[in-house]
Amino acid sequence: MIHFVTFNIRCDYEQDGPNNFCFRRERILKKLEEERPDIICFQEVLPHVAAWLKQELADYYVLGCGRSEEFQDEQMAVAYRPDKFDLISWETFWLSDSGRPGSRFEGQSICPRTAAEALLYDREEKEIYRVFNTHLDHVSGDARKRGLGQILDRIECPRTFPEAGVILAGDFNAEPDGPELAELWGRGRLTDASEGLGGTFHDYGQLSQPEKIDYICLAEPLHFKEAKRWEDCVDGVYLSDHYPVSVKIYRE
């Protein structure tokens, strides 16, 4: 059994008033200490927040690199428990035609977009898992569709360990019925473990109907139970402007 979380931690540009990262970070640590997930896929991790995660999450290894040409800016960070997993391989790849660091699709936002792939061996269960973490473009539906297609191609054509269980997580910036996600459901392999939980982006409680844009998708033979949104809020301060999503994943 794997306790798995996807968590858009929100870029820390000190623009969120009472929900600035400096006011959220101790609550984030407390929640992670209480829940003790095995794997966490973080999005919107700026370099100083990545350094903070590596310092404070003593029970985890935190992997990731920035999305810019100089490997700065936001990253797709994956944290995993080394007492449970061995890392077989790791790769950050750019969602673009060229795949070069800092590259983008024509017509997308100014933000390069990346995905991270971690190949993890569960020593206790003696199983291998391929974990993909991404944050698709917030402007261009075409870029979201093409970036997702690039990830799905990798999922369907693994270079090694084709028997490994597949987990795809992150902020897709699209609702489940969005046209850019049609290929995700149409290829038939992946199911949404977070389906039915309701919206995930809530803008610190400002949205009366949160948007469902965060996902944990699994391919058979992986299954799940106990899917939850982390809705913690104390005195108007949330964990993030997205609800982190948590599931328990098992293999049949």
Automatic annotation (TrEMBL):
Keywords for the protein's UniProt record, in alphabetical order: Endonuclease, Exonuclease, Hydrolase, Nuclease
Top-level taxon: Bacteria
Domain spans labelled Endonuclease/exonuclease/phosphatase: 5-242
Coiled coil: none
GO molecular function, one term: endonuclease activity
Annotated InterPro entries: CCR4/nocturin_mRNA_transcr (IPR050410), Endo/exonu/phosph_ase_sf (IPR036691), Endo/exonuclease/phosphatase (IPR005135)
Membrane-traversing stretches: none
Gene3D superfamilies, A to Z: Endonuclease/exonuclease/phosphatase
Protein name stated in the entry: Endonuclease/Exonuclease/phosphatase family protein
